[in-house]
Amino acid sequence: MADHTDVPRVVSASREIAAAPERIFELIADPSQQPRWDGNDNLTEAQPGQRVRHVGDVFTMRITVGSIRENHIVEFEEARRIAWLPAEPGRRPPGHLWRWELEPLDDTRTRVTHTYDWSQLTDPARLPRARSTTADKLRASLDRLAAIAERD
Predict the structure, then answer these.
(1) Are 146 and 39 in contact (CB under 8 A)?
(2) How far apart are CA 139 and CA 93, in angstroms?
(3) Which of 68, 96, 121, 146 is 20 to 30 A off residue 85, Cα-Cα?
(4) What architecture is domain 20-151?
(5) CB 144 within 8 A of CB 33
Protein backbone atom coordinates (compact mmCIF):
# COMPACT_ATOMS: atom_id res chain seq x y z
CA MET A 1 0.00 0.00 0.00
CA ALA A 2 1.26 3.47 -0.86
CA ASP A 3 2.22 5.80 1.93
CA HIS A 4 -0.53 8.33 2.59
CA THR A 5 1.79 10.94 4.07
CA ASP A 6 2.68 12.26 0.61
CA VAL A 7 -0.54 14.29 0.32
CA PRO A 8 -2.39 16.59 2.71
CA ARG A 9 -5.15 14.85 4.65
CA VAL A 10 -7.17 18.06 4.93
CA VAL A 11 -7.88 19.86 1.67
CA SER A 12 -10.02 22.90 1.12
CA ALA A 13 -10.99 25.50 -1.43
CA SER A 14 -12.74 28.86 -1.08
CA ARG A 15 -14.40 31.33 -3.37
CA GLU A 16 -16.74 34.26 -3.31
CA ILE A 17 -20.25 33.62 -4.57
CA ALA A 18 -22.59 36.46 -5.59
CA ALA A 19 -25.53 35.25 -3.51
CA ALA A 20 -26.76 35.51 0.07
CA PRO A 21 -25.59 32.78 2.46
CA GLU A 22 -29.19 31.61 3.03
CA ARG A 23 -29.61 30.91 -0.70
CA ILE A 24 -26.32 29.01 -0.95
CA PHE A 25 -26.89 27.07 2.27
CA GLU A 26 -30.27 25.87 1.04
CA LEU A 27 -28.52 24.17 -1.90
CA ILE A 28 -26.06 22.44 0.45
CA ALA A 29 -28.41 21.51 3.33
CA ASP A 30 -31.00 19.95 0.98
CA PRO A 31 -29.38 16.66 -0.09
CA SER A 32 -31.64 16.36 -3.15
CA GLN A 33 -29.81 19.43 -4.55
CA GLN A 34 -26.30 18.09 -3.99
CA PRO A 35 -25.92 16.02 -7.19
CA ARG A 36 -26.52 19.27 -9.17
CA TRP A 37 -23.29 20.81 -7.92
CA ASP A 38 -21.08 17.84 -6.93
CA GLY A 39 -17.68 18.49 -8.53
CA ASN A 40 -16.34 15.17 -7.28
CA ASP A 41 -18.80 13.34 -9.60
CA ASN A 42 -19.65 10.95 -6.77
CA LEU A 43 -23.35 11.65 -6.08
CA THR A 44 -26.31 10.48 -8.14
CA GLU A 45 -29.45 11.14 -6.10
CA ALA A 46 -31.03 11.78 -2.73
CA GLN A 47 -34.71 11.55 -1.93
CA PRO A 48 -36.44 14.92 -1.40
CA GLY A 49 -37.56 15.88 2.10
CA GLN A 50 -34.23 15.29 3.89
CA ARG A 51 -33.36 18.97 4.48
CA VAL A 52 -30.81 19.06 7.30
CA ARG A 53 -31.70 21.16 10.36
CA HIS A 54 -29.60 19.88 13.32
CA VAL A 55 -26.49 18.07 14.46
CA GLY A 56 -27.50 14.42 14.70
CA ASP A 57 -29.61 14.44 11.52
CA VAL A 58 -28.80 11.71 9.00
CA PHE A 59 -29.49 11.93 5.27
CA THR A 60 -29.07 9.20 2.69
CA MET A 61 -27.52 9.57 -0.73
CA ARG A 62 -26.95 7.18 -3.65
CA ILE A 63 -23.42 7.40 -5.01
CA THR A 64 -22.19 6.74 -8.54
CA VAL A 65 -21.15 3.13 -7.84
CA GLY A 66 -24.79 2.46 -6.92
CA SER A 67 -24.48 2.07 -3.16
CA ILE A 68 -26.17 4.14 -0.46
CA ARG A 69 -24.38 6.36 2.05
CA GLU A 70 -25.79 7.55 5.35
CA ASN A 71 -24.41 11.01 6.10
CA HIS A 72 -24.25 11.88 9.81
CA ILE A 73 -24.43 15.62 10.57
CA VAL A 74 -21.73 16.53 13.11
CA GLU A 75 -21.63 20.33 12.72
CA PHE A 76 -24.55 22.62 11.98
CA GLU A 77 -25.24 26.33 12.16
CA GLU A 78 -28.05 27.49 9.86
CA ALA A 79 -26.72 29.42 6.83
CA ARG A 80 -23.15 29.34 8.22
CA ARG A 81 -21.73 25.81 8.66
CA ILE A 82 -22.58 22.19 7.96
CA ALA A 83 -20.43 19.07 8.10
CA TRP A 84 -21.12 15.36 7.80
CA LEU A 85 -19.45 11.99 8.12
CA PRO A 86 -20.51 9.50 5.43
CA ALA A 87 -20.96 5.83 6.30
CA GLU A 88 -22.33 2.64 4.83
CA PRO A 89 -25.90 2.04 6.11
CA GLY A 90 -25.88 0.82 9.68
CA ARG A 91 -22.08 1.12 9.99
CA ARG A 92 -19.84 3.53 11.88
CA PRO A 93 -18.42 6.36 9.76
CA PRO A 94 -14.89 5.40 8.68
CA GLY A 95 -13.57 8.88 9.48
CA HIS A 96 -13.76 11.23 6.52
CA LEU A 97 -15.60 14.54 6.86
CA TRP A 98 -17.14 16.99 4.39
CA ARG A 99 -17.52 20.58 5.66
CA TRP A 100 -19.05 23.75 4.22
CA GLU A 101 -18.51 27.17 5.84
CA LEU A 102 -20.29 30.34 4.68
CA GLU A 103 -19.13 33.83 5.60
CA PRO A 104 -21.37 36.72 4.53
CA LEU A 105 -19.36 39.55 2.96
CA ASP A 106 -22.40 41.79 2.44
CA ASP A 107 -26.09 41.34 1.51
CA THR A 108 -25.31 39.75 -1.85
CA ARG A 109 -21.85 38.15 -1.54
CA THR A 110 -20.66 35.18 0.49
CA ARG A 111 -17.25 33.55 0.92
CA VAL A 112 -17.76 29.78 0.83
CA THR A 113 -15.10 27.32 2.00
CA HIS A 114 -15.41 23.63 1.21
CA THR A 115 -13.18 21.21 3.15
CA TYR A 116 -12.55 17.48 2.86
CA ASP A 117 -10.85 16.13 5.99
CA TRP A 118 -9.70 12.52 5.90
CA SER A 119 -7.21 12.81 8.76
CA GLN A 120 -9.26 10.31 10.81
CA LEU A 121 -9.90 7.86 7.94
CA THR A 122 -8.88 4.35 8.94
CA ASP A 123 -10.29 2.15 6.14
CA PRO A 124 -7.38 1.28 3.80
CA ALA A 125 -9.81 0.56 0.95
CA ARG A 126 -10.94 4.20 1.02
CA LEU A 127 -7.49 5.80 0.99
CA PRO A 128 -7.01 5.88 -2.80
CA ARG A 129 -10.31 7.73 -3.28
CA ALA A 130 -9.51 10.08 -0.40
CA ARG A 131 -6.08 10.85 -1.90
CA SER A 132 -7.71 11.68 -5.23
CA THR A 133 -10.04 14.24 -3.64
CA THR A 134 -8.00 17.35 -4.37
CA ALA A 135 -8.61 21.05 -3.86
CA ASP A 136 -9.39 21.21 -7.61
CA LYS A 137 -12.33 18.85 -7.13
CA LEU A 138 -13.56 20.90 -4.18
CA ARG A 139 -13.21 24.02 -6.31
CA ALA A 140 -15.28 22.35 -9.04
CA SER A 141 -18.09 21.87 -6.50
CA LEU A 142 -17.80 25.51 -5.45
CA ASP A 143 -17.89 26.67 -9.07
CA ARG A 144 -20.96 24.56 -9.87
CA LEU A 145 -22.65 25.71 -6.65
CA ALA A 146 -21.91 29.34 -7.59
CA ALA A 147 -23.35 28.89 -11.07
CA ILE A 148 -26.64 27.59 -9.59
CA ALA A 149 -26.85 30.08 -6.70
CA GLU A 150 -26.03 33.07 -8.90
CA ARG A 151 -28.42 32.02 -11.68
CA ASP A 152 -31.56 31.01 -9.77
Answers:
(1) no
(2) 24
(3) 146
(4) 2-Layer Sandwich (3.30)
(5) no
